[in-house]
Structure formats: C-alpha cells, structure tokens
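Exercise 7. Given the encoded structure of a 155-residue chain, write a plausible sequence.
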C-alpha cells in the first residue's frame, strides 16, 4: 500500500472528526468513521512501514489534528464562511386602537377561509371560519387577535 493512500485515509479521518465536532451534534457516523479511518491509517503505517514510520505518523496525526482544532476554534475562521445577511421581513400586527370588534371593512382577496382584508385603512390577514367570501365583499370584524382578525360576511 502506498504512502499516499495512507495519508489520504488519515486526512479523511481527521476531516470526518472535524465534521463531528462542528457540524453534526452527538455521536454520529462521521465521528465513528473519523476515528476508524484515523486509527486505521496509523495502524496501516505501523504494519506496512514499521515502528519508526508508525511513530512519525502517530505524532504527525496528533499534531495536525490539534492544529486543525486550533484553527477551527478561531472566530475569524468561521466568519469567512458565515452567512452575513439580515432578515428584512416583518410580521403584520393589529393595532388594538385602530381595528376593533364590529368595524366594517372590505375583503381584498378571496377569503377561502383566509385572505387579506382592509379595515379602517389597514390591510391585515383576515380569517372567516365556516364561510367563503369573494373579493371586494363587505365584512364585519368579529374578533381581533395580535396578527390577524376574524371576520364574517356582512348581510
């Protein structure tokens, strides 16, 4: 077996161990596989090349593993690959003083049973349980919640 294959086996094991530490929580196949590949690579070095090269492989693997852990724990390492975006969305909330029970409004979309309703100049999500209301139909507010209102058709 060539030395390149043994080095690749050890590097694959170290890579799987890093994945285990930083990506997959708990004991997973990555951690078990990483340990098996790393230990197997060192064992193959001892078996194929003898004790002196085996000791070198063992010390080099420990050194490279600790070096990878050191650089992985640095915050600048993760800042380079971190997603730097802001969420610009917002939740529409009903202001208690602007919309109250009994107010009248107009459905902007078909309430099937959920859609958009305009009440007192405010566009808000409206729910109409048990009814389907076509768009541009008059509605009356039955209940007001934090993020939506319950309406009924105006008869």
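Solution.
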């Amino acid at each position: 077996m060539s030395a390149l294959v043994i080095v690749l086996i050890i590097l694959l094991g170290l890579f799987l161990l890093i994945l285990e530490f930083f990506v997959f929580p708990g004991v997973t196949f990555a951690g078990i596989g990483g340990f098996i590949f790393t230990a197997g690579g060192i064992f193959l070095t001892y078996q194929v090349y003898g004790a002196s090269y085996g000791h070198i492989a063992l010390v080099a693997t420990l050194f490279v593993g600790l070096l990878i852990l050191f650089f992985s724990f640095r915050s600048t390492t993760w800042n380079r690959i971190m997603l730097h975006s802001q969420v610009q969305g917002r939740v529409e909330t009903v202001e208690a003083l602007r919309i109250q029970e009994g107010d009248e409004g107009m459905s902007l979309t078909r309430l099937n049973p959920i859609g958009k309703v305009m009440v007192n100049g405010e566009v808000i999500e409206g729910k109409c349980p048990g009814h389907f209301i076509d768009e541009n139909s008059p509605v009356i507010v039955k209940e007001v919640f934090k993020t939506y209102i319950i309406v009924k058709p105006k008869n």
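Remark. The radius of gyration is 32 Å. Students should compare their own answers with the one above.
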